[in-house]
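From the methods appendix. Each design record in this collection lists the discretized structure first, followed by the designed amino acid sequence. Records were kept in a plain field format so they could be parsed without special tools. The example shown here is representative of the layout used throughout.

RECORD:
C-ALPHA CELLS (127 positions):
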C-alpha cells in the first residue's frame, strides 16, 4: 500500500509543531474506529501522533497513514464532502483540528498553508 512520503510534521521545526499541536485537542481512538467517513462534511482534520490508519475508498484500501501524517485536510481546503473513510488499524493518538483552527493556522503560518496545499495536491494526483 502507498504511504505518504515523509510525514507532514517532518516539514516543521519543533516550535512550529508545538504551535500546531496547541491549536488542536489531543484525542485517543481505539483500533477499528473511523474518525472520518466518506460523504460527510469537512469539519475537522487530524494529525496522527501514534498509530496507523487505512484510507478507504469504496471499501478498498488506497493508502495507509502513520505517525506525523495529516488526514482530512483536502476536503476542508476544497470545501467539499469527504472522498474517503479512515479506519484505525491500531489504537490512535491524534491532534484534532477544527476546520477553523486549520484555516487560522494557514493564515498565521504560511509554511503550514503551503504544506497543507502540497499534501492535498499530492493526494488528489494519486487518486
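DESIGN:
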Amino acid at each position: 500500500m502507498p504511504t505518504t512520503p515523509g510525514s507532514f510534521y517532518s516539514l516543521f521545526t519543533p516550535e512550529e509543531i508545538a504551535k500546531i499541536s496547541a491549536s488542536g485537542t489531543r484525542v485517543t481512538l481505539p483500533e477499528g474506529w473511523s474518525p472520518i467517513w466518506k460523504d460527510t462534511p469537512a469539519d475537522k482534520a487530524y494529525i496522527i501522533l501514534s498509530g496507523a490508519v487505512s484510507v478507504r475508498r469504496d471499501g478498498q484500501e488506497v493508502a495507509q497513514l502513520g505517525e506525523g501524517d495529516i488526514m482530512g485536510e483536502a476536503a476542508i481546503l476544497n470545501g467539499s464532502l469527504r472522498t474517503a473513510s479512515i479506519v484505525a488499524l491500531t489504537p490512535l493518538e491524534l491532534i484534532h483540528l477544527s476546520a477553523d483552527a486549520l484555516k487560522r493556522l494557514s493564515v498565521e503560518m504560511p509554511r503550514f498553508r503551503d504544506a497543507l496545499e502540497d499534501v492535498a495536491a499530492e493526494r488528489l494526483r494519486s487518486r
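APPENDIX NOTE: Confidence is low (pLDDT under 50) at residues 1-5.
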